[in-house]
Amino acid sequence: MNAATKTQLKTLALQLTSDIDVVLNDTELESIVVGCNGSIRNLATNVRRLARRKAKAASSQNNKAV
How far apart (Å, rounded) are the C-alpha atoms in residues 7 and 30? Predict the structure, then answer.
């Protein structure tokens, strides 16, 4: 079985981020795509992990502002 191309993985990562209402910049997306080595499972896991981290960071910033 052939691994997905970087373009296909980036498209999938954008769809995943859209589904979970998170915006990742191009540098973050590229880092995830390169790090997953063609594995869709790794891509999905890493996108969700970074999304949680960004949500947690945003939440803590909102709590500091209050």
Answer: 10
- Report the Cα 56 to chain-centroid distance in Å: 14
End-to-end alpha carbon distance in the chain: 52
Task: Output the pLDDT for position 44.
Answer: 94
Beta carbons of 49 and 14 less than 8 angstroms apart: no
Quote the pTM value.
0.80
| Domain ranges (residues) in the chain | 6-60
Dihedral sign, Cα of residue 12, residue 27, residue 22, residue 42: positive
